[in-house]
Amino acid sequence: MSLPRIAVDAMGGDEGVRVMVEGAALARRRHEKFNFLLMGDRVQIERALESHPGLAGAAEIRHCESVVEGEDKPSQALRRAKGTSMGEAVAAVKRGEAGAAVSAGNTGALMAISKVALRTLPGIDRPALAALLPTLEEQDVIMLDLGANTECDARNLVQFAIMGAAYSRIVTGRPRPRVRLLNIGTEDIKGTGEVQEAAKHLRAAKTLAIDFDGFVEADKINRGDVDVVVTDGFSGNIALKAIEGSARFVTDLLKTAFRSSLRSKIGFLVSRPATELLRHHLDPNNHNGAVFLGLNGVVVKSHGSATANGVANAVAVAARLLEEDLTARIGEDLAELGDSLMANGHRTRTDTSKIESSAK
Fold first, then answer.
1. Taking the model in full, what pTM does it have?
2. What does the pLDDT look like over 185-227, one tens digit per residue?
3. 345 CB contacts (<8 Å, ≥6 apart)?
4. Helix ranges restricted to H, the chain
5. Alpha-carbon Rg of the chain, whole angstroms?
6. Which residues, in sequence order, are bridge partners of residue 144?
7. Around Cβ 59, how many Cβ atoms within 10 Å?
């Protein structure tokens, strides 16, 4: 059984066509059900496909004249989205020609284009960027928002919690994901007014299939005690970058230590299986594929510096969300919550000035 085609922005990312096509080919080798729409410069894509004959028969090329650049502001990208590889990948989802879009390009531009083209689900004011982060346990933790919305009120945070929990049920299989709000302490009195109000609504939402028990501090995100961490995009992006930087610091420190003397080099050889496991666990490519939750369609953001393996993993994330029908699950959970919070306030119109390109 094949899935709906996945539209790939072949021009996005730090290395563009070569890595994006190689990643799609790797995903195809792993799962023969994958089929692709490759958006971008036809000549460059065809040249890249010469090294991947197994992908050629499972991919259609759509020529695009231009590319959304990394330095483009969301408003600029919106104005010229038509005809760009990113814009056409999202448009293919809107037209029903593809089930999902994958891009490693400008995050803010991708968010703006996706929100305008696909719109948000009923009951969702703003999409949120969610990603999987490694933990000490077997299951990853889902964290959102990671940079799409720098300012969030309690209503937004509650919606993020609902969307993150629906995603977590797919990833972990846990019927009641453990959801926590990121805060500066676990005590009930800690945090901003928005965080406090969101916690109050989540505690009162007894019909939601979540296990909510207040707050989590940043140093506990990767312990494995929580399935979903919810925060605003400003704090979330800072926390994400701190976690990624700490992981690189640890691996670089180990490299330096093992090279410091002959005894250290011998120690490295002895401990190599353990260090290789650590490297694999901390490699962001093995957790690649952030999702814009809350849209009428599936859009996955690959890290700009992702390897082919990372791109293949982002494709796999998109496919899994299609198979599990994530958008329908989010809608069901919103209906369960009822009108207690969702009926209050007003829907936020598209405001590209608040859509940040903070994770390129």
1. 0.82
2. 988 888 899 999 999 999 988 878 889 989 999 999 989 899 9
3. 125, 153, 155
4. 17-30, 42-49, 53-56, 74-79, 85-95, 107-118, 154-172, 193-204, 233-258, 262-282, 308-324, 326-337
5. 21
6. 130, 230
7. 23
Tokens of 160: 């993020």
For residues 211 and 243, what is the distance between their CA atoms, to the nearest angstrom?
A: 25
CB-side neighbour CA atoms (13 Å) of 46:
6
pLDDT for 269? 63
Cα 150 to Cα 23, 71, 131, 157, 308, distances in angstroms: 31, 19, 16, 12, 30
Question: To 10 degrees, the CA torsion angle through 123, 127, 128, 132?
Answer: 90
Q: How many CB atoms lie within 10 A of CB 244?
A: 15
> Which residue type sits at 319?
A
CB 236 within 8 A of CB 182: yes
Please give the Cα distance from 272 to 350 (Å, whole number): 50
**What stretch of H or E contains 110?**
helix 107-118
For 15-28, write each residue's pLDDT tens digit: 889 999 999 999 99
